[in-house]
């Protein structure tokens, strides 16, 4: 009897879950596939003035001529003062925020990559690969890939403008989904970034596409209107930037 009751309960749950599945139009899917995050940059320009704001509130401007990283994340920054020309070295745990400009070499590489992928051309903004704007880094205490001891790093915010509830940070070591290319032609498909660092409330975690469903309720579950429109069995990892943006708009009212 208990077994029959359990099977019935599982059937009702699965039926309810299936009933909640939402089918989207081609236009809606195209909108959700648009990549709204900024490009992640790993190399600052040594020719443009960077700004470092320490935790004590002091501000330092100069040319960023050396950056040391650990597992791809910045933990030490060398700056040559723009006035005195004095070299200074700052650890990530000293720095509250940092603003740098992306190097031309990395921008050129991103343009070439963009032009070589059909999906990127359809879903990403070329302007974000060629930006002349400042790149914003903030100090965050994280566990790299959720496996290492917590440590302070400078992490690039890639969703400025809609980061007041969920902040998304560039993962310098993120891989991308694969695609298919024929000869020297552009790649078809693939090019979807597989992981980011994400902060909501006091929690900062490494979010991989394979763990997206498991963390969906934590990220979006406190907004009933959003969950009704975008239940987790109806969306894909490819829509992540749209989902963060939409959730933020609906939550902010």
Task: Report, as a whole number of angstroms, the end-to-end distance.
Answer: 48 Å
Number of helices: 7
Binned, the helix content reads 25-40%
Radius of gyration: 21 Å
Biggest β-sheet: count, sense, barrel? Answer: 7 strands, antiparallel
Shape assignment: globular
Overall pLDDT metric? 89
Number of strands: 10
The low-confidence parts are 8-19
- Reading the helices and strands in chain order gives HHEEEEEHHEEEEEHHH
- The main sheet orders its strands as 4-3-2-1-5-6-7
The secondary structure category is: alpha+beta
- How much of the sequence lies in strands comes to 25-35%
Keywords: Signal
Question: What is the topological layout?
Answer:
Elements lengths: L1 H18 L6 H7 L16 E6 L4 E12 L2 E9 L5 E5 L3 E6 L3 H12 L2 H6 L11 E8 L8 E6 L9 E4 L25 E6 L2 E6 L3 H9 L3 H6 L10 H13 L1
Antiparallel strand pairs: 1-2, 1-5, 2-3, 3-4, 5-6, 6-7, 8-9, 9-10
């Amino acid at each position: 009897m208990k077994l029959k009751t359990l099977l019935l309960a599982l059937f009702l749950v699965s039926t309810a879950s299936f009933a909640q599945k939402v089918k989207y139009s081609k236009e809606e899917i195209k909108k959700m596939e648009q990549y709204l995050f900024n490009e992640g940059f790993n190399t600052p320009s040594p020719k443009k003035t960077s700004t470092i704001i320490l935790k004590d509130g002091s501000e330092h401007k100069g040319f960023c001529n050396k950056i040391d990283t650990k597992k791809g994340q910045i933990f030490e920054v060398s700056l040559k003062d723009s006035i005195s020309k004095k070299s200074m070295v700052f650890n990530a745990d000293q720095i509250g925020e940092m603003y740098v400009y992306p190097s031309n070499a990395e921008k050129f590489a991103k343009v070439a990559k963009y032009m070589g992928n059909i999906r990127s051309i359809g879903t990403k903004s070329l302007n974000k690969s060629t930006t002349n704007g400042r790149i914003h880094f903030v100090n965050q205490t994280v566990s790299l890939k959720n496996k290492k001891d917590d440590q302070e790093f400078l992490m690039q915010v890639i969703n400025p403008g809609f980061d007041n509830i969920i902040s998304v940070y560039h993962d310098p070591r993120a891989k991308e989904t694969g695609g298919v290319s024929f000869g020297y032609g552009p790649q078809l498909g693939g090019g979807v970034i597989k992981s980011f660092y994400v902060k909501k409330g006091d929690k900062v975690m490494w979010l991989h596409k394979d763990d997206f469903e498991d963390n969906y309720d934590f990220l979006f579950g406190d907004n009933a209107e959003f969950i009704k429109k975008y239940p987790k069995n109806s969306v894909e990892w490819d829509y992540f930037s749209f989902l963060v943006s939409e959730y933020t708009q609906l939550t902010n009212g």
